Amino acid sequence: MKKIYIILVAVIATFILSGQDAFARKYKHEKEVDAQYFPRSEIYVQYGSPTILELVTMLKAPTSFEGYETTNQVFTGTPGVGYNFFLRDDLSIGIFGGYSFAKSDICKETSGDIGARLYSQGVKNYVGQLSANWTYFSEGPLTMESGLYLGVSYMDREITKAEGLSPELHNQLPKSNEQIKVAYHITACKLRYGNTFGIFGELGFGYRGLVNLGISIKL
């Protein structure tokens, strides 16, 4: 009977030790795999030049008003903040939030000179986007990426009409409004230099700025 107990204990001990060894090997393998992809998180802040929304969508004199010009255009560009999570060492998904403001005056053109102001307009634009980014070149601290962003834009447009307008002209002018639009952005090329702390510059088309500069930290 004692021999049976000894054999049974030995079998159980062997099973436990082999299980621990397999678990240790699996844990070590997972750590090695994870090490290839760390750091997994990136936080960044950026500043972008005027966006497509600012340059194309707004600030033009209405085509129905002949003899009026757009003047005193001001663009803030697009400051923003974002977060990326790396699914692999060359692929990440993320979220981005940005803000921009632009304004202009619409004035009557008289004999080649700008005359009386018809109205002023200002547009505040808030952008939220999800992103997917692909790193196609990596050499030491230098990486090159491209990306696709898709989300929504909340645009608050305020119209300030000049005083003394005729009721007919006053009613023909655009009115203050709010809009929600699809907000896209394509990053053609992004260069980042640095390991944990880095600086980057990118060229793109859409709602984040034609040219973006920023700093980021990888954790």
Give structural notes.
The protein is an alpha+beta fold and 219 residues long. The protein has two domains: 1-37; 38-218, Porin (Beta Barrel). The chain is built from three helices and nine strands, in the order H-E-H-E-E-E-E-E-H-E-E-E. It has an eight-stranded antiparallel β-barrel with strand order 1-3-4-5-6-7-8-9. The radius of gyration is 29 Å and the shape is elongated.
Domain module count:
2
What form results from the Cα inertia axes? elongated
Describe the main β-sheet briefly: 8 strands, antiparallel, barrel
Please compute the radius of gyration using only Cα atoms: 29 Å
> What percent strand?
over 45%
Strand tally is 9
Sequence stretches where pLDDT stays below 50 over 5 or more residues: none
Mean of pLDDT? 81
Could you tell me how far the N terminus lies from the C terminus, measured between alpha carbons in angstroms? Answer: 59 Å
CATH architecture level-2 label of the largest domain: Beta Barrel
Question: Helical amount among residues, as a percent range?
Answer: 10-25%
What is the fold named in CATH at topology level of the largest domain? Porin
Structural class: alpha+beta
Strand line-up in the sheet with most strands? 1-3-4-5-6-7-8-9
Please report the first level of CATH classification, the CATH class of the largest domain. Mainly Beta
The secondary-structure element order is HEHEEEEEHEEE
